[in-house]
């Protein structure tokens, strides 16, 4: 198993759009994604939308290290998006931190 301090960190960020705010939330993603993909240590940053629930947005992220993830967490573009997400989502952004299992 890869230890988070020594290897990639996988995040799943889930957002449930408030009814009627689905498009506004989706419209905020391109700026966030473009800026984040330029960050040092960003290996994967891919938004997804629910097939059965169009208001569900899920971001799949892979970061080279905990240090890179911390830098992303403090970035202006993520801060701006998170503030907007508070008004456009039910419950804000829910983060699940994962590490790959060697099987």
TrEMBL record:
GO MF annotation terms: monooxygenase activity
PROSITE patterns in UniProt: ABM
InterPro entries reported for this sequence: ABM_dom, AI-2_Isomerase_LsrG, Dimeric_a/b-barrel
Domain ABM: 9-97
Transmembrane parts of this sequence: none
Alphabetized UniProt keyword annotations: Monooxygenase, Oxidoreductase
Pfam families: ABM
Gene3D superfamilies named among the record's database cross-references: 3.30.70.100
Protein's UniProt name: Antibiotic biosynthesis monooxygenase
């Amino acid at each position: 198993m890869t230890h988070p301090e020594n290897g990639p960190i996988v995040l799943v960020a889930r957002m449930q759009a408030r009814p009627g705010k689905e498009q506004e939330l989706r419209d905020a993603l391109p700026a966030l994604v473009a800026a984040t993909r330029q960050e040092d240590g960003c290996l994967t940053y891919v938004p997804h939308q629910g097939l059965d629930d169009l208001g569900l947005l899920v971001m799949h992220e892979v970061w080279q290290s905990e240090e890179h993830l911390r830098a992303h967490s403090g970035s202006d573009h993520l801060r701006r998006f998170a503030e907007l997400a508070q008004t456009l989502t039910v419950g804000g952004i829910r983060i699940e931190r994962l590490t790959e299992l060697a099987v």
